[in-house]
Amino acid sequence: MRFFTAFTAFLLLSSYVQADSAKRIVALAPHVVENLFAIGAGDLIVGTVDYADYPDAANAIPRIGGYNGIQLEKLLALKPDLVIAWQTGSKKIDLTKVEKLGIKVVYSDAKDINKVADELRLFGQLTGKNQEGEYAASAFTAQFEEIKTRYATGNSLKVFYQLWPDPMMTVSKNTWIHQLLSVCGVENVFAKGSTDYPQISIENVIKASPHVIVLPTEKTKKQIQMVNWQKWPEIPAVANQQFIEVNADLLHRYSTRVLQGVSDMCDKMRHSKAHYNSL
């Protein structure tokens, strides 16, 4: 009788969790879409934003806006029972309106690479895919630990991460990208910047004298004015032609694919280290 009671309680709890799980999700950031697909919940997404383009199936999801704001009417027409928003990528005024209409809003806040695993677990709980979320989180953590161990040794290099060329911007110590550079065992020359994403000049870069310049490739509709670094051969990175191109979609999104991005970047840093060791 005791076993029957416990088993019945388990079935009731499981039914409650399943019934309470989100069935129609609006995901307001590309990394949210990626992480939902990573736990097998991609088919629950009924709406998303511009640039949510991975995996391929994500391209078929209706768009309701982007970084400039969301179209509330389109969102409501999708009848979501859950909206997952990005703290720094969605307009608060839009989300306040959504909450006032009684729609549940959960915020993604994975500013630390170690929190990606936590977010996978959270998404698993929200969608009734706890087991899938736990598996994806554990796999992410194990792979990240392996990457950190792989690149922990070797001499350090002074690195400039050119986040954006015009106006020229970089990253300081409190950013996600700085964490990724640290995994590669290199020194961010603008780590002590006064803001998270300081705007800098060519003169600042010359003074910092980086051994390597990292150039992320962005998907953007804007016209980008590229920097002709060959004009400044006094910079060691230029004199030694040590430019590293990286995939911004992999490195800048708080998703499981960041491990591909950081591994690629660290591999390229290793080649740069070998170059300087050979001088």
From TrEMBL:
<keyword id="KW-0732">Signal</keyword>
<dbReference type="InterPro" id="IPR050902">
    <property type="entry name" value="ABC_Transporter_SBP"/>
</dbReference>
<dbReference type="InterPro" id="IPR054828">
    <property type="entry name" value="Vit_B12_bind_prot"/>
</dbReference>
<protein>
    <submittedName>
        <fullName>Cobalamin-binding protein</fullName>
    </submittedName>
</protein>
<dbReference type="Pfam" id="PF01497">
    <property type="entry name" value="Peripla_BP_2"/>
</dbReference>
<dbReference type="InterPro" id="IPR002491">
    <property type="entry name" value="ABC_transptr_periplasmic_BD"/>
</dbReference>
<feature type="domain" description="Fe/B12 periplasmic-binding">
    <location>
        <begin position="24"/>
        <end position="273"/>
    </location>
</feature>
<feature type="signal peptide">
    <location>
        <begin position="1"/>
        <end position="19"/>
    </location>
</feature>
